[in-house]
Structures are given as structure tokens and as C-alpha cells.
């Protein structure tokens, strides 16, 4: 365990926002967590890669930086393998480990920033795949009682950027390890997403491997998403709202180009980026913060912006979207 006082969080969050954590504790194993709990250090806030948080003020809580590492093979048969991964491993490094060991299932989730421990938090997803498709279970420690529990898939209540850890038991647990089941053979590739097919065709790849899929996903992401090293951001700021089909049909009479994806017979998902772009916020700049010039779903820090300025802009966008379309946007990013 490593404790630092008055640590600047700027290099610990992908918005690159400066803020002070009065107490910043790096934890390297579960015993470190028990030491923190025994000393009754409270309140606690957990940080992984800081790629899904918006820090709006200095943090008085004890910030626990998860540095629990390790990728261990737990079980395997001829077809599949179960691995247990330390919550502080970088997600992308874990996906690359899978690719290099020819283990399929997570290749579409290449290059998503952040830690393995945060992946089940919002059930990360991209290009038609969510982490839940390979998820087996996770280990978490209850921050109040210190009780260590296993959460199996059905207990995590995974949904679109949702889990029990963002809702019923929000801020109550620290996830320490996550188990995934991966395919050794008969890889079932998910190529439904148009851009993946196009990029494979462009590269004349007819029978792609998991490595090919991972490579094209990385290329697509690099071409589309702003790199936090260059411009501070946390990826998609808002979730894509799900609305009633009748509401959508009504909107379509005014906005004939409004896109949607069918969720079920009665509801559709509408791209939040389109809603925001259509009311003129794409590329919007106010001082040092704004909306990305190519991706209206991504709020950005142009340099020395403040978290509270980004938050104010987010609330303004939520209001404008509500006034215009009678749709309630919700943040995907966790507000601190
Ligand atoms: C450029 C960019 C692209 C992105 N693309 C995608 C994408 O395609 N799909 C997608 O789903 N997301 C995407 N994201 C969002 C982000 O990468 C994911 O949400 C990621 O899982 C966050 O991991 P983290 O370790 O950075 O979490 P943090 O930001 O550190 O934490 C996020 C939340 O989880 C909690 N938390 C973190 N670790 C733990 C733990 N071990 N135990 C308990 N609670 C914990 C924190 O307290 C916080 O509330 C993107 C972000 C960026 C910057």
C-alpha cells in the first residue's frame, strides 16, 4: 500500500482535470484493502484508469487507486478457458493478452481505456459486443463490512452500460478480481457492425481471425475517437436514450432524418450524438471546454478547463435535448 497526501488527480483521469485528493492510496492486493478498512479510513472512492469519471471538485474522501494485477488461468478444457484477472490490469492489455494466446470473445472490445475492475461496472461495450458475453463472475469486498463476496453473472444485472454496481449497490463494493471465459477454438466472430466489415474488405481479409478483428477495431477507434492524451475526454458522455416507438414516430414527422435502432416491438434506441448534433452543439466551444468537433457525444477539455464547466455544459445539453425532443439524456460518465 502506498499513501500520498494532496495528490493532483490530473494524470489519473482522461479528462486531464486538475483536482486535489487529500488522501490517495494505491492498493496492490486485497490485504491492502483490509488494512484501509481496519483503520476505518472513510469515506472511500475507487479509481481505476479514470476514463469514466468527471471530477468537478477537490476530493475529500480517501481515493483508492486499484493496482491489483495478474492474469491467471483457473480452468480449461478442449474448447474454452477461464481466466481470473486483477481489477487493476488495463483492459486493453488484457484483451491483447487474449489475442496473443488465441483466445476469442473480447476482440471487439480492443482499445477501450480503463481497468478490468471497472469493465463490469458499466458492462463496457463496443461494436456489437459487451463484456458480459464472456463474463463469468467477480470478487468484490464490501467497503462497510469487509465481507468478500462472489457475484455471478446473473447477480450483476448487466444491461446497456449498466450493472448492479451502478445502481442498487453503487459505491458499496470494491471489485478486486474478474473471471472471464474465452474460446480456444471455433471463434464466433461478431462482424455485424458495418465499419468492421468495410475495413476487413478494404484490407482484402475474407476469413478473418480474432487478431484481424482486433486490428480493424483498433484502426476504426483510432480514426474516430479523440485520444485523451491529445484532448481530454471520457468517451461517450451520454447514454443513447431508449424511447417508445410511438414517441419516435411522432419525432420523425418533424425530424425526418432522426436515426434509430430497434430495441423491441415497442421501443427504439436513438443515438444521443445525433440529437446533440442536430441542435447545433457539435464542435461547440465555451472557454476551455466544449463538444468534440467530430463526435457530438464526446465532451472535451481543451486544456485548462474545469470539471464543473464540463458538468454545466452537460446539464445545458440535457435541458436543450429535453426541450427539443422531450427526451431525457442520462450521463454514462460518473460525476465526482
Ligand atoms: C476515449 C475513450 C473511449 C471510450 N470508449 C468506450 C467504449 O467504447 N465502450 C465503453 O463501454 N466505454 C468506453 N469508454 C469509457 C471507459 O473507458 C470505461 O467505462 C472503462 O470501463 C472505465 O474504466 P476505468 O478504470 O477508467 O474506470 P474509472 O473511470 O476509474 O471509474 C469509473 C467508475 O467505476 C468505479 N470503479 C472503478 N474501478 C472500480 C473497482 N475496482 N471496484 C469498484 N468500483 C470501481 C469508479 O469509482 C467510478 O465510479 C471510453 C472512454 C474513453 C476516454
Q: How do the helices and strands line up, and which of them pair or pack?
A:
Blueprint: E1 2-8, E2 20-27, H1 30-38, E3 44-47, E4 53-54, E5 59-66, E6 71-76, E7 80-86, H2 91-100, E8 125-126, E9 129-130, E10 135-142, E11 148-152, E12 173-183, H3 194-202, H4 210-224, E13 232-233, E14 242-244, H5 245-254, E15 261-262, E16 267-269, H6 272-278, E17 285-286, E18 289-291, E19 299-301, H7 307-325, E20 334-335
Parallel strand pairs: 2-5, 3-5, 4-20
Antiparallel strand pairs: 1-2, 6-7, 7-12, 8-9, 10-11, 10-12, 13-19, 14-16, 15-16, 17-18, 18-19
Helix pairs in contact: 3-4
This protein binds flavin-adenine dinucleotide.
Residues 14, 45-53, 66, 87, 112-115, 117-119, 121-122, 124-126, 173-175, 225, 228, 233-235, 334 line the site of flavin-adenine dinucleotide.
Notes on the protein architecture:
This protein has 336 residues and is of the alpha+beta class. The protein is 24% helix and 27% strand. The chain contains 7 helices and 20 strands. A 5-stranded antiparallel β-sheet has the order 6-7-12-10-11, with no helix packed on it. Strand 18 and strand 19 form a beta hairpin. The mean pLDDT is 96. Bound molecules: flavin-adenine dinucleotide (FAD). Residues 14, 45-53, 66, 87, 112-115, 117-119, 121-122, 124-126, 173-175, 225, 228, 233-235, 334 line the site of flavin-adenine dinucleotide.
Short description:
This protein has 336 residues and is of the alpha+beta class. The protein contains seven helices and 20 strands.
Features:
single chain, 336 residues, alpha+beta, five-stranded antiparallel sheet, four-stranded mixed sheet, 20 strands, binds flavin-adenine dinucleotide
Amino acid at each position: 500500500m502506498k499513501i500520498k497526501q494532496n495528490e493532483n488527480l490530473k494524470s489519473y483521469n482522461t479528462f486531464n482535470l486538475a483536482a486535489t485528493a487529500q488522501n490517495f492510496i494505491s492498493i496492490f492486493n486485497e490485504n491492502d484493502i483490509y488494512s484501509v478498512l481496519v483503520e476505518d479510513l472513510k469515506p472511500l472512492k475507487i479509481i481505476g484508469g479514470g476514463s469514466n469519471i468527471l471530477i468537478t471538485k477537490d476530493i475529500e474522501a480517501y481515493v483508492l487507486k486499484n493496482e491489483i494485477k495478474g492474469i491467471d488461468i483457473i480452468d480449461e478444457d478442449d474448447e474454452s478457458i477461464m481466466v481470473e484477472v486483477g481489477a487493476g490490469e488495463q483492459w486493453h492489455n488484457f484483451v491483447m493478452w487474449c489475442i496473443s494466446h488465441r483466445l476469442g470473445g473480447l476482440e471487439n472490445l480492443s482499445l477501450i481505456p480503463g481497468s478490468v475492475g471497472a469493465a463490469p461496472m458499466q458492462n463496457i461495450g463496443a461494436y456489437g459486443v459487451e463484456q458480459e458475453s464472456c463474463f463469468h463472475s467477480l470478487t468484490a469486498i464490501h467497503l462497510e463490512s469487509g465481507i468478500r463476496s462472489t457475484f455471478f453473472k446473473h447477480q450483476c444485472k448487466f444491461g446497456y452500460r449498466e450493472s448492479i454496481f451502478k445502481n442498487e449497490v453503487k459505491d458499496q463494493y470494491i471489485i478486486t478480481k474478474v473471471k472471464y471465459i474465452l474460446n480456444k477454438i471455433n471463434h464466433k466472430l461478431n462482424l455485424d457492425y458495418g465499419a468492421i466489415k468495410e475495413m476487413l474488405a478494404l484490407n482484402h481479409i475474407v476469413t478473418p481471425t480474432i487478431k484481424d478483428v482486433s486490428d480493424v477495431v483498433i484502426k476504426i477507434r483510432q480514426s474516430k475517437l479523440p485520444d485523451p492524451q491529445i484532448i481530454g475526454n471520457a468517451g461517450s458522455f451520454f447514454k443513447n436514450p431508449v424511447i417508445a416507438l410511438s414517441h419516435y414516430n411522432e419525432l420523425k414527422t418533424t425530424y425526418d432524418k432522426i436515426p434509430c435502432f430497434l430495441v423491441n416491438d415497442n421501443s427504439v434506441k436513438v443515438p444521443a450524438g445525433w440529437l446533440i448534433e442536430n441542435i447545433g452543439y457539435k464542435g461547440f466551444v465555451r472557454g476551455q471546454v466544449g463538444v468534440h468537433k467530430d463526435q457530438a457525444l464526446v465532451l472535451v477539455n481543451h486544456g485548462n478547463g474545469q470539471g464543473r464547466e464540463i458538468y454545466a455544459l452537460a446539464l445545458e445539453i440535457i435541458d436543450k435535448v429535453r426541450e427539443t425532443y422531450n427526451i431525457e439524456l442520462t450521463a454514462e460518465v460518473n460525476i465526482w
